[in-house]
Design goal:
Chain A: GO terms for molecular function: ATP binding; ATP hydrolysis activity. Chain A: InterPro entries: AAA+_ATPase, ABC_AA/LPS_Transport, ABC_transporter-like_ATP-bd, P-loop_NTPase. Chain A: Keywords: ATP-binding, Nucleotide-binding, Transport. Chain A: Residues 10-240 form the ABC transporter domain. The structure holds 2 protein chains of 2 kinds. By secondary structure, chain A is an alpha/beta fold. Helices cover 37% and strands 26% of the residues of chain A. Chain A has 10 helices and 10 strands. The two termini of chain A are 32 Å apart. Chain B is mainly α. In chain B, the strands form 3 sheets. Chain B has a two-stranded antiparallel ribbon. A two-stranded antiparallel ribbon of chain B has the order 3-6. A two-stranded antiparallel sheet of chain B has the order 4-5. In chain B, a hairpin with a 2-residue loop joins strand 1 and strand 2 (154-155). The chains are: A alpha/beta, B mainly alpha. The interface between A and B is medium-sized, with 34 and 28 residues.
Chain lengths: 244, 357
Amino acid sequence: MSDAADMPLIETRRLVKSFGGVHATDTVDFTLKKGELRCLIGPNGAGKSTFFKLLTGQIAPTSGKILFDGDDVTGLSSFEIARRGIGIKNQKPDVFDGLSARENLWLAAQFDTDKKTADQRVEKVVDELKLASFVHKLVGELAHGQRQWVEIGMVIARNPRLILLDEPSAGMDQEERIRTAELLKELNTNTTIVVVEHDMQFIKRIADIVTVFHRGKILREAPVDVVLRDPEVRNVYLGRTEVA
Amino acid sequence: MIKFLQKLQSPSSESPGAVWWAFIVIAAVILALLPQTLGLAQLLDLSVVLVLALLALSMSFLWGYIGILSFGQTAFFGAGGYVYAVAAMNFGTTTLPFFLGILLPMLLAAVLGYFMVYGKLSDIYFSVMTLVITLIMNKAMRATSGSQYVVGDVRLNGQNGIPGVPPLQVPWNPEITLFIDHVYYLAAALLILVYIGLRLLLTTPFGRVMIGIRENEQRIELLGYDARRYKLLAFILSGALAGLSGTMFAIWGNFVAPEMFGLDRAAEVIIWVIVGGKATLIGPIVGVGIIQYLTTWLGMQGVGQVTLVLGVILIVFVLAFKEGLVPTLGNLLLRLLGVRPGGQAEPGSDNEKGPDV
């Protein structure tokens, strides 16, 4: 692997986010190399979604630093961070309910380009994600899984350098989960990806390294199989989950 | 036709179709022919409806498109009227004052909007601030009755207002001034142009982002758009439209007074938009027509408490016809045609194909 590939794409240094004295994110040192596909796991309330919100500027950190491709992006607005190339799918479908799926995708695709290129990007995403059957419908009228696909499509349509996906397979059936996993692996050939997930089968399918969050801190960071056998991880999180 | 009715439910970023353009042509022809059948008094009444419809559009554009409720439209409306009046009476010509009546309210909106938008005021505080600005301007104009309050040669006259505002002159022949029917045609042409312009704006990237902000501001930001910039631009544009309406109001009535900034007027604008349907452009125009007609009719019937009646109408609409008259009627027609309101046409029908985004 080249030196460039070993460079961290995103890095946090002693990142803290407190809500009324409670540390939702507690001195997190996190590093992700370019080209990685990392999964974040942890029990509900472990701070995974808060961590994503910090990385995307949806909330400002209490202290600490966030570096993206070597630049300090701490405290930047959401739109400024998005412009640097970070795309996110939030935990709950975060879409434009009153617009059609195509209009949702178009809004994502046209941001930094001309109309023709935006149209081409939309067509590509519709084709890749197989959205054609509902692309003209209002997103507010779609099923949960379809809304998830639209939001994933919106993230992809912007061609970000780093994709953050918060529970992308939630609300999807088994077939859709497999499709999502395959899609992520394909995207990972030229995009760095971080995924928050609970589904261990899904995680095993896509990731090599897993980061475990617990009470706002990073508890472990290791290959999937190692993490799954770790007694402390099983105690705080996996004890409630069937591990295949 | 079904798609046309569905588009009445909310602002759509789809390109307007042939039915919409046909509707525009029919409306333009009707407006052009009406003076043949109306007397001057009726034409005068209709003219003010058209002028105030511009004010209603400035509000629905901001509220219905981007989701900002501004009570300050009357501030820009009043500013437009006063700027035209003072400038026209000082300059002796009216073409430049006409454009100043649009430009200065626009600048006022730019300055106020900058501090409110970039000051990160929440939506509710934004609304309150615009209300305060309207009240301050109303109070300030009422306090100008002393002889020291003069702009050039024009006394502001406090609550008595400024009478004798010059009628608009033909730019290339200032000897000719616009009479009642000419003002009507100008107001009708401006209303149609503004309506078309705002509708087409929705099909542009700017318009689509505006709707995106109304739908989900956080997602717009996460896509890389600076929502504040779009909000400010929308506020400036709506200020210009309100200024245009105020200028035309001064030309129509040859008179300006602090009531143009008044709380009554500010509330009326909201009633027009709510009654007609804020999520549409045609709704507020219909709202102005109905409320203005009703106000005049109630006055003729000797009903003293017209404001009270309007208040009751507002409550009824807020409770019973939340979306406003035009979307409600659109829904009704769609049900009669067997189409689920807001939904997509049946597969295989002519309307199945979606928008060319």
